[in-house]
Amino acid sequence: MREAMRHRAIAGLSLFLTTALVTPRPAGAVTSDSPEVQRVVAKALRYLETADDKRLGAECLTAMVLFKTGAPLDHPKIVQAAAHAQQWARDGLPFPNGEELYSLGLAIVFLSELNPRQYAADIDRLLALLAERQQDFGAWGYLGSESGDTSMTQYCVLGMWEAKQGGLKIPEASIAKAANWLLRTQDPSGAWGYQGRDAGSFQLVAQEGKRASMGAGGLGSVLLAAHMLGLATAEPAQHTGDVPRALVPYLDPERAQPTQVNATQLVDRRVLREAIARGKKWTIDNIAFSLDQPYVYYYMYSLERCMSVLESIEGQSPREPAWYSDGVGFLATTQKGDGSWQQSFGPEVETPLAVLFLIRSMKRRLQKQQGYGAGLLAGGRGLQDRLSGAPAEAAPQPGAEDDDPIARLLAAVDAGDERGSADAALDQLVQATLRLESAPKEPPSSQQFEELRQIVHYGSPDARLVAVRLLGRSGELDQVPTLIFALTDPDVRVAIAARDGLRRISRKFDGFGLADDADMDSRRQAAEAWDAWYHSIRPHTQ
To answer: Whose CA, among 110, 148, 192, 400, lies 20 to 30 Å from 179?
Structure first.
């Protein structure tokens, strides 16, 4: 179930030219699958393996990153974070003053993504603690403060949203209270301030402490609340004020969530729609990444979440948005030598925030909820089935692909024809499709190679094994970074197939050792050695 991105701490994943660090990247230059992104993430994962921040929120962020990038569920840091969250569920909030709300929200997010059924009782207790701390006016904030805190509120709303996606019941009155507070505290410009000034009506007043991170956090929270209340519907949007018509969101009724009450009685849809339009315009106009910007890594996590939810509600799926490419370039240049990022909250917090941006965490979460993958392939079939190893509705029909063994194998993986994880069965499948005694008549196309590389990163264990074997038999140096990446796959079969593929491509038939039963430390050492070899023959790669 949790075979999203593989957890590998290696180098040698990218072809990121030095000039890319000093010249603007064009829109659409990179995606979360790109080798240069994988390289930066891999370096960060090495750092996070050493992270030792005992704050629950920091532990949950690190555990989420490891979990989302494919670490096994018994990874010590995942186990530790889950146990700490369960302790809070059992014992309550320690030393409550407000700051613990960040940890509380993140704990709910983490457990809800990890296993909402297994941790349902713990999540319910954490949600009860969250409800106790919600102010009458709808927000969350510091104890004794008469104003709500936009920053804390966004993590509380995110926690409720994740719990709801996990099947837990969230009172709609609580969601609506939070939504209405956010709508009342939006600045007339479309921004949000840090401590919301609530005029008690929807006649907007100027806010203080406006900055990009609060804008993205406020808008993202409004969007999540609308999603939970089932208000993501296609009631015609009216053009109001100075908001350009192109920025008034179209809300798809097919993406509306069912609701047990008339949510329009709780939240005014017109007010909601206009707030989203203003917030979208302000957020897009103010996207920027700089170390001079306060809390920039915290902001980037909020921005990715906000933009992903907005894209989803509007029915858009831009593969390579310009803001993401710009963010990747910024993170590549600001990453420390040890793999971390550091600014205001400490590297154990800011590093996982940066990684969650890089891997498009919320986008992938939404794709999973909506049942489609990162791209649409031939015939309209979603990539997600192919990557997850889930059976397709029907086996592929005979057609043009019959003469193309690579396409035939991809179709077989898509249809779930691997029939289990037995290595012998997979060997049979590969031989039947590729005729290993001779090369395919036609080499794989660039699109097929891209599909195979995505399977290596995001597929089920069996699908990863097939894809690695195919890439290893390609004979192409361009596939070496992906094979190095696969050396530290959690499934040792995949790692050994990657080893064999590297030996075949390099003609170094003894390779750098690596026994069939090699442990993870040995595989990481082999990955480093293969990385050094690769850079010795392609010295201009970074």
So the answer is: 110
Residue 110's closest CA among 59, 55, 45, 51? Answer: 59
What are the CA-CA distances from residue 8 to residues 174, 205, 382, 470, 540 (Å)? 40, 49, 26, 20, 23
Q: Give residue 45's pLDDT.
A: 93
| β-sheet bridge partners, residue 192 | 186
Residues 280, 409 within the same domain: no
CA 299 to chain centre: 15
What range defines the domain where residue 64 resides? 32-370
- Taking the C-alpha atoms of 240, 241, 247 and 248 in order, what is their torsion angle to the nearest 10 degrees? -20
Looking at this protein, which amino acid is placed at residue 343?
A: Q
d(CA 153, CA 159): 10
- Dist CA 467 CA 448 (whole Å): 10
CATH code assigned at 151: 1.50.10.20
| 507 φ/ψ angles, rounded to the nearest 5 degrees | 65, 20
- Would 8 be classed as within a structural domain? no
Give φ, ψ of 427 to 5 degrees.
-60, -45
pLDDT score of 57: 92
Q: Cα–Cα distance between 528 and 542 in angstroms, integer?
A: 14
The mean pLDDT values, 10 residues at a time, for the chain of 542 residues are: 35 28 44 86 92 91 91 91 95 82 94 90 94 91 85 94 89 91 93 88 87 92 90 47 41 38 68 90 92 90 92 73 92 93 88 94 79 30 36 38 49 45 42 42 62 72 82 84 85 87 84 79 84 80 55
Q: Phi first, then psi: what are they for 293, rounded to 5°?
A: -85, 125
Measured at the CA of 388, the angle between CA 315 and CA 426, to 5 degrees, comes to 150
Roughly how many angstroms between the first and final C-alpha of the chain, as a whole number?
A: 34
d(CA 391, CA 493): 22
What pLDDT is recorded for position 459?
Answer: 66
Partners of 382 in the β-ladder = 376
Domain contains 407: yes
Predicted local confidence at residue 317, as pLDDT: 66
The whole-number pLDDT of residue 493 equals 87
Q: CA–CA separation, 315 vs 257, rounded Å?
A: 14
Structural domain ending residue among the three candidates 339, 370, 401:
370
Give the model's pLDDT for residue 445: 61
**Cα–Cα distances in angstroms (integers) from residue 347 to residues 84, 290, 344, in the given order:** 20, 17, 8
Q: Let me know if 50 is exposed, middle or buried by CB neighbors in 10 A (0-12, 13-18, 19+).
A: exposed
Specify the DSSP class assigned to residue 345. Answer: S
- Structure tokens of 171? 């009172």
Which pairs count as long-range contacts for 518-525, CB under 8 Å and 24+ apart, including other chains? 518/492, 520/488, 523/487, 523/488, 523/495, 524/9, 524/10, 524/487, 524/488
The rounded distance, in Å, linking the Cα atoms of 368 and 390 is: 12
